[in-house]
Amino acid sequence: MKITPTPHNSTLNAISSVRSPAGAQAGSSASSKSTVELSPAARQLASLQNGDNDVDLERVQQIRDAIASGQLKVDAGRVADSLLASVRELLK
User: Fold this and answer.
1) How many domains does one find in the chain?
2) 7 belongs to a structural domain
3) Is residue 22 part of a domain?
4) pTM (global) more than 0.70
5) Which whole-number Å values give the CA distances from 23 to 10, 29, 71, 89, in the listed order?
6) In angstroms, rounded to a whole number, what is the distance separating the alpha carbons of residues 92 and 86?
7) Domain span at residue 86?
8) Is residue 48 assigned to a domain?
9) 28-80 confidence digits (pLDDT tens)
C-alpha cells in the first residue's frame, strides 16, 4: 500500500467551497451583519481568559520581600493539610 501526500490547500479549498453558498464571496455583502449573544456563563469564562487576574502581583512582591529578608516562615503542617485536602477533593 502506497500513501501519497495530498496538498493541504486543496483539502481546505474543497471544504470552504462546500460551506460557501454558490456565487457568494466573503465580505461581498456589507449589509449582512451577524450578532452573537453570549450566556452569562460564557461571559464569565471569557473574562477568565483575560489573564489580568491570574496572579496577584502585590502578594507575589510581599512573598519576595519576606524571602529576601529571611522572614518567610513555612508551616509544614499547614502545607501538608492543604495538600491532603486537595487530593481528597480530586478523588471525589
Assistant:
1) 1
2) no
3) no
4) no
5) 19, 12, 72, 56
6) 10
7) 56-92
8) no
9) 555 678 998 889 998 888 877 776 667 889 999 999 999 999 999 889 999 99
- 14 within domain boundaries: no
Give the whole-angstrom CA distance, residue 55 versus residue 28.
44
Output phi, psi for 39, to 5 deg.
-70, 165
Q: What are the cell numbers at 54?
A: 491570574
Provide the 8-state DSSP code for 50.
T
Cell, residue 91: 478523588
SS3 68: helix
Instruction: Write the CA distances from 57 to 27, 50, 53, 83, 89, integer angstroms.
Output: 43, 15, 9, 24, 27
- Grid cell for residue 14: 474543497
